[in-house]
DNA sequence: AAGTCAATGGTACTGAGTACCGTCTATATG
DNA sequence: CATATAGACGGTACTCAGTACCATTGACTT
C-alpha cells in the first residue's frame, strides 16, 4: 500500500533532491535514504545515477526500430519522419516529467551530454535505415542518407525543445509542419514509371538569383536525389 | 633530454595501454606508471582519463568561434561551411593519431559518447551563429538555422569518417563537394536589391512529379529561405 | 511445515577524481 | 656564492559511483 513499487519512490526522491541541491551535490546514498531503501536497491532499479533521469530510452529506441521495420512508406525519408513522431509523442505523454528533465539537462553538462548521445543513437538508426532503403552504395547516396537523418532529427529536436520550453501548444502540428519542411529539402525523384501520364509542366517565372547559383537546385528538383 | 615534457609520454603510454588491454581495463595508475610519473601529475596534465584522447577540443572550438567572428561571407551558412573546414584540417594534421582515436571511439561506448557531445557543441555554435546572422526571430527561421547547422555538421562528419576509415585520399575535395551539396539544399534567397538587372528566367520543362509535391520546393526556390 | 523464489539490505572492494601538503629544482637576486 | 621564490612533481588521504557477494526476509507453493 504505502509501497508504490520503490522504483517510483526512488525516481521521486531523485528528482526532488536534484531540484533542491543540484545533481552533482546529490549522492546516491541520499536518494536511497529519502526513498527509504538501501543503496543496493537503487542500483538494482537503475543502472546508474543518470539512469534515474533517462529511464526508458532503450525501450523507446527499440520501439522506433520496430516501427521502421514494419513500416511501408513510399520513401525511407518519409518512413523515418513518421517514426520520429513516436519520440515526440512519448515526451508529450510524460508531460511534466519531461519538462523537469529538460530543466536538469539544461543546467548539468553531464546530463546534457548523455541526452545528446541518446539522440545520436536515433540518428544513427535513421541513417542506416535510409541508406538501406535507398539500396544505393554510392558515396553520394551515403552522404544524402546522412543529411536526411540529421535533418529529421534536427527538426524533431527543434519542435521538442519548443514544447519543453512551453513555447508551443500544438507540438504535433508543428512537427508535421517541420517535417514538411524537411521533405521539401529533399524532393522526391520523378517516378520511374511512365512519365507521360501524371506530371507537371513548369511554365516560366523570373528570379533575381544568378543562374549558376540556381542550377544545382534545379537539377536536384527534377532528377530527384537518388532515393529508389 | 629523456623528458619530452611528460605530457607527451603520458599520452603515448595511454594510447599504448588502451591498445593493449582496452580502455576500461586500463587504470590511470598504470598509465602514470608507464609514463614514469606520479598519478597526480597525470591529472595535472589531463582533467580526466578521457581527456588524454581528446586533448584540444576546447582549443579547436575557440578557434572556430574566432573564425566565425572574423569571417565576412555572403550568408551565415557559407560562413559556417567554411569554418567547419578547420575541423577537418585539424584532424588531417593529426594524421595517425586521429585514426587511433577513431579506432578507440569505435569500440568504447563512453568515448563515442564523449566525441558526439563535442560535435554537438560545434553544431550548437553553428546554429547560434546562423540564427544571429539571419536576424530573423521567426519560428520558421529558427528551424531553418537548426537544419542548416545539422546539415553542415552531418556532411562534415560524413567526410571525416570516410577519411578516418581510409576510404578517401582527398578529403578536402570531398568536403568541398559535400558542402556544395549542402548549399544546394538551402538555395540562397533572391537578392533584395533591384531584381531587374542580374537574374534568371526559367522557361519551361516537364517532370513526372505531382504538382502538389513540387510546390513547396518551388516556393522555397524562388523566395529563398529567409536568410538576410 | 518445509521449500522455493524474488526482492532487499549490508559489507567490502575497485577506480576516478579532488584536496592538500611537503619536496625538489631552476632561476633570479642579494 | 648563498638565499629566496615560483613552478612542477610525488604522495597521502578522502569522496563517491559502480560492482560483487552474501545473508535475510517474506510471500507463495507443495
UniProtKB/TrEMBL annotation, chains A, B:
Gene3D superfamilies attached to this UniProt entry: Homeodomain-like, Tetracycline Repressor, domain 2
Keywords from the named record: DNA-binding, Transcription, Transcription regulation
InterPro entries: Homeodomain-like_sf, HTH-type_TetR-like_transc_reg, HTH_TetR, MftR_C
DNA-binding region: 27-46
Pfam entry (one): TetR_C_14
Any GO MF annotation of the entry: transcription cis-regulatory region binding
Protein name (record): TetR/AcrR family transcriptional regulator
Domain HTH tetR-type: 4-64
Superkingdom to which the source organism belongs: Bacteria
Amino acid at each position: 500500500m504505502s509501497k508504490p513499487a520503490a522504483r517510483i519512490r526512488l525516481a521521486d526522491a531523485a528528482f526532488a533532491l536534484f531540484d533542491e541541491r543540484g545533481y552533482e551535490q546529490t549522492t546516491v546514498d541520499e536518494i536511497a535514504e529519502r526513498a527509504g531503501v538501501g543503496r543496493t536497491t537503487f542500483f538494482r532499479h537503475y543502472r546508474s545515477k543518470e539512469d534515474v533521469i533517462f529511464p526508458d530510452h532503450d525501450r523507446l529506441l527499440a520501439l522506433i526500430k520496430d516501427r521502421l521495420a514494419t513500416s511501408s512508406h513510399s520513401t525511407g525519408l518519409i518512413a523515418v519522419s513518421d517514426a520520429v513522431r513516436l519520440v515526440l509523442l512519448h515526451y508529450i505523454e510524460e508531460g511534466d516529467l519531461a519538462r523537469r528533465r529538460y530543466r536538469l539537462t539544461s543546467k548539468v553538462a553531464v546530463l546534457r551530454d548523455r541526452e545528446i548521445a541518446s539522440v545520436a543513437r536515433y540518428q544513427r538508426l535513421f541513417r542506416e535505415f535510409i541508406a538501406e532503403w535507398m539500396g544505393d552504395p554510392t558515396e553520394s547516396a551515403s552522404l544524402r542518407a546522412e543529411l536526411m537523418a540529421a535533418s529529421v532529427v534536427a527538426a524533431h529536436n527543434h519542435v521538442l525543445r519548443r514544447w519543453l520550453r512551453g513555447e508551443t501548444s500544438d507540438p504535433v502540428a508543428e512537427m508535421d509542419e517541420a517535417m514538411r519542411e524537411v521533405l521539401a529539402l529533399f524532393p522526391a525523384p520523378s517516378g520511374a514509371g511512365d512519365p507521360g501520364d501524371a506530371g507537371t509542366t513548369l511554365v516560366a517565372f523570373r528570379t533575381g538569383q544568378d543562374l549558376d547559383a540556381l542550377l544545382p537546385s534545379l537539377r536536384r528538383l527534377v532528377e530527384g536525389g537518388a532515393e529508389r
